[in-house]
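Before relying on records like the one below, remember that each one covers exactly one chain. Contacts with other chains, cofactors or solvent are not represented anywhere in the record.
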Amino acid sequence: MFYLIVGILIFIVTFYFIITEKIPSAWATMLGGLIMALIGILNEAQALKAIYERLEILFLLIGMMMMVHIISETGVFQWFAIKVAQLTKGEPFRLIVMLSIITAVCSAFLDNVTTILLMAPISILLANELKVDPFPFVMTEIMSANIGGLATLIGDPTQLIIGSEGGLTFNEFLLNTAPMSIISMAILLGNVYFFYCRKMHISRDLKVRMMEMDSSRSLKDVKILRISMFIFSLVLVGFVLNNFIDKGLAIIALSGALFLVVITHKEPKEILNNVEWETLFFFIGLFMMITGIENLHIIDFIGNKLVHLTEGNFNLALISITWISGLFTSIIGNVANAATVSKIVNVMLPSFQGQSNVNALWWALSFGSCLGGNLTILASATNVVAVAASKKAGCKIDFIKFLKFGASISLQTLVVATIYLLARYN
């Protein structure tokens, strides 16, 4: 009981520091994880295992951060921003719609973190050029990345976990989760229009100046750009084909980054200085804390109660998995939630063998994990990376500011997802 009370207290205090920003979030999670280890909630082997089991996420981030830095130096982000602005004639809502659709489609087939690392700087550049608040631009893209990841088996790490545990195919995800992804995008864009874009006004002079800008002047080094885009394209192809070539996302990303660094003659110090180490240490601390919480059997306790509560009631099971997954995701992250709740789903499945649409339990988990991923900064790696990248580009998004936007979108989409599940699978 002592460990249970202290462990929950550590988790709450860590959240307090993250929310209030009294100390940097990276130090907050690291201290939380290390204190759990020091008092015996987890031992050193378990703490290191928590990091080791998720090294793919950390090395994937490092590889992508290195490549994005080199690509950004060529000026291609500015070039793309100007092209998009001219295509939409500088209208803020059209811009957000185009950027969010690009983000969602890319997230459906690529890693979400990769997508947001590329798109967030472009959004901030565009907002600054048009002299409007970049916050709704960035937040819409974060939400779009998580929603887009819902559409396919390869769109988000949570989907891969669910697909593996449930023995589900790419086409099954496409037919069952993609429609909800499209509906969620419509909800997101509707909210952004009514609460933000109606208030945005761009002067005619600014629009004219934007249309007259020569995008080609933004490109600083065309030779390095060509090399970078070639290698980056190979990396993206590797991501898409990884299910077949089985090399691993981290290996593919790091290989691309190192080849690009060597070919462009970059010094290690320059490249490593531009890696977001604060974000990486935030994840390391969070991974240790999640293991500590798992050791306290809090999630197991809730899972057993859920199995007992829903036995024989399919509709209640769908609702419970959707909303409990959304809640767990907002606290421990969508990957940890998918890995944990998938075990609960496997325990529940025998109770519903006579149900023709029993796979709907997996779709409920998918909706809870991906749509719940918009609730808090901690709910998804995409969120953490995007907030860090935005801060670096001059757009600071704190925990509360994220929560106010994300909670509204997440709750609305989860309500609609619940209705979708009950209407379609009964």
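The chain has 22 helices and no strands.
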